[in-house]
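Contributing new records

If you add data, match the layout below exactly. Sequence lines come first and carry their own label; structure lines follow with theirs. Keep one chain per record. Anything else will be rejected by the validation script.
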Amino acid sequence: MGTTRANRPTPPRPGPHRSPAVRAHAAAGPSPRDQASRGGPASRGTPGGRGALHRALQEMLETRRVGFQKELGRVAGEWTADSIHDLRVACRRYRSALRGFAPFLDEAATKALGAELKGFMQAFNDLRDLDVQLEMLAQIPAPARPGVRTSLDEVTAWFTARKGRLDAELQQFVREHAAVGTLPLPDPRPGPLPTVPEGVRAVLQAELDEAVRRSHAIAWDMPQETVVPLHDLRIQFKRLRYAVELFAPFLGKEAPGLLKVCKNVQDLLGWIHDVDLLAETLRKLWRRQVRDRQRLVRALVAELPWPFPRGLNLEARFLPAPRDHRKVFLHVLADLSAQRERHYGAARSLLGNLASLHWSESLARWFSEGSCPPIWKKEFARHAV
């Protein structure tokens, strides 16, 4: 059996947290100078502090860029669902690090590089979605009626044909845009910069604050209003996860537990997003078929001669018959709705449990002090099962 979304392994992490500068700072722990900075900005602006942060940022970003370049080279010679998935992940990790470090980097250069990476990654969104949607359609229970089964095969063939066209277009796109992997990294922002630990705390706290804000925007009792907010929350948990992965040495030996929690939330929200996206694609295809039939009928009626000439073949005017897959659309949408309800309940329960841990305050304290609160250790044991 081929690799599917469910069993696809997570690609090896590029490991920017292995940077020598980060390892050295994490191993040494907070210096007296850094401890003093928690009460005020006394340590900022010294040449050593600025240079250390700049080196750490450059090393982390360079490692992410190298990982992205490696996947670019791989996908050029190995165009598979796995290689494309790993390329998107590498690009997202690179872009996520750049986004997190933006407050410490030259603003114009950071925006320019970020826009290039965003455009590159977005070019693959439709192909990724089609891969997942084909997997999901293959797992839909077969309809009982033969005619509906045939319609499901026809709808699946439409997705397959669309994927084939995108494959060809994107292979050309990669050849034309491979240089994005060699674009220069931004220089540090002019003016005083924080120390490395201060910079780490600032990035982690910013991603946490955004995740908390988006979680509060979910109206759980109104599922029809949650499609976009849940998608946004999924993206933010992914960013938080990448930031934790990046700065794991600063968070101690419990960091893998937090990564697992973030991934569990991200995966649950990802299933909901994929169900929502396939449902919307099917609804668009259904509306298109309705419009096509309406246009055909209007044209046929408008062109009918009156009175009918002798020997007019009316049936021939309606051939080939316009496609009508409404029965299979309803069959698939009903199954997707049941799937969403299951994932929705699980996601609501998981995020409710995070709220009971006061995750906004407890994680902020962990990010600030570098020591995992005891309340989280029990949570990690639950997610490890």
